[in-house]
Amino acid sequence: MRRKLTAHLWKEGDLWVAQCLAVDVASQGATEEEALANLKEALELYFEPPTPARVPEVREVEVEVRA
Predict the structure, then answer these.
(1) For residues 29 and 7, what is the distance between their CA atoms, to the nearest angstrom?
(2) What is the value of pTM for the model shown?
(3) Is residue 64 part of a domain?
(4) Contact 18/29 with Cβ under 8 angstroms?
(5) How many domains is the chain partitioned into structurally?
(6) What strands, in cross-sheet order, belong to the sheet with 15-20?
(7) Which of 38, 4, 1 is nearest to 19 (CA)?
(8) Which domain holds residue 33?
């Protein structure tokens, strides 16, 4: 699935910063193009589904609740 997102670019010192406006993800680079490429990679990782290292253990817990 492909998704179009908007990025805000600005220069901070010697680096360019690229920030996605839809989600809280940002990256930087020496050039605008590098900052955007790094942002694209960061967004792909952000939207990648998690893969657990081990299967989570699920258990029931009983608690007493006072009225």
Answers:
(1) 14
(2) 0.73
(3) no
(4) yes
(5) 1
(6) 7-12, 15-20, 25-29
(7) 38
(8) 7-47
Residue type, 50: P
In the 3-class helix/strand/coil scheme, how is 2-66 assigned residue by residue? CCCCCEEEEEECCEEEEEECCCCEEEEECCHHHHHHHHHHHHHHHHCCCCCCCCCCCCCCCCCCC
Residue 65 lies in a domain: no
Residue 24 domain flag: yes
User: Tens digit of pLDDT for each residue in 21-43?
Assistant: 999 999 999 999 999 999 999 99
pLDDT attached to residue 18 = 98
Residue with tokens 């193009």: 33
Angle at 10 between CA 5 and CA 12, to 5 degrees: 135
